[in-house]
């Protein structure tokens, strides 16, 4: 247990949340996971099966089925690690059970979750999550970063850092992550957003399609469209050089025995048949800004529409070709 009564309530203990909760717990921090369905049952029955290139462990992890069951107390910090499409429902629940002064850290991709949280909570922190991880089986999470599992910088939203950021970063560092307080976290998160516009491509077209000429063309065009829209909207985005400097050689993608990495988080949503996907939060951010600023974003609009439909209708990765998506640009 950590001193000072700090407790990390990690809501959504999947790929990212499971890795954060599991490694914080292994480092002796006080952690509660909020999970649901068969994953909750597996956590409660046998703990978290956490696999990494550095080793695999069964981590005993206190787990409850909803934020109503947490028993919130002073010193708690909520770490949101659900996908963006689940944030609104979660926050509605959270606001009914936790004090409005609860610090909320959004360990999620995109930049929409912090705004959702700020409508209900005053003390909101964004986290830029560079943590390649997989959760395809109840109770099991694999994180591929080696030697650090990932980079988890955080800061207040809209800007600045405070004592909480310092404390969380120190606890994450003790758990093995690279984590720094970041005074302009949304700047970093917008750079990550540009990268995550590819999530829908990987999910729809499959990982093999990325090695094709059409796949490469699509990935480049989707990112370029995102950059152009963010520039038209006047958004402050970290440069690729700044991003590369921060990544440095903190981690590379390692091997985890017995686990195939497959694709990113949206690919995992389709592979698991989750029924929803994160397109509205990721490509939808570009669609939103394009509409607000009078510019076009046909590729991101198409990806948002397709990945939502794919999740609803149970399509598997590979159901769509890059050429089919590129056709939206040429229509
Ligand atoms: N996976 C990765 O490599 C990376 C992911 N990210 C980002 O991290 C965030 C989380 O993604 P990821 O970890 O992949 O997602 P996962 O689907 O693996 O984990 C999210 C978990 O949250 C659960 N959940 C959703 N709503 C609730 C709720 N109200 N109460 C309890 N549990 C809930 C989900 O359950 P259920 O399965 O039932 O839906 C799921 O188990 C996303 O924003 C993603 O883009 C960032 C970097 C890398
Ligand atoms: C960068 C990447 C693809 C790492 O897995 C990611 O952020 C995601 O899966 O959402």
Q: What does this protein look like?
A:
It is an enzyme of class 1 (oxidoreductase). The chain has 331 residues and is an alpha/beta fold. The protein folds into two domains: 3-183, NAD(P)-binding Rossmann-like Domain (Rossmann fold, 3-Layer(aba) Sandwich), CATH 3.40.50; 191-237 and 263-330, Orthogonal Bundle (N-(1-d-carboxylethyl)-l-norvaline Dehydrogenase, domain 2). The protein contains 13 helices and 13 strands. A seven-stranded mixed β-sheet has the order 5-2-1-6-7-8-12. Strands 4-3-10-9 form a four-stranded mixed β-sheet. Strand 7 (104-106), helix 4 (112-118) and strand 8 form a beta-alpha-beta unit. Helix 7 (198-205) crosses helix 12 (298-313), helix 8 (213-232) crosses helix 13 and helix 12 (298-313) packs across helix 13. It is globular and about 55 Å long. The N and C termini lie far apart (58 Å). The structure holds NADPH dihydro-nicotinamide-adenine-dinucleotide phosphate and ketopantoate. Ketopantoate binds at residues 109, 132, 195-196, 199, 264-265.
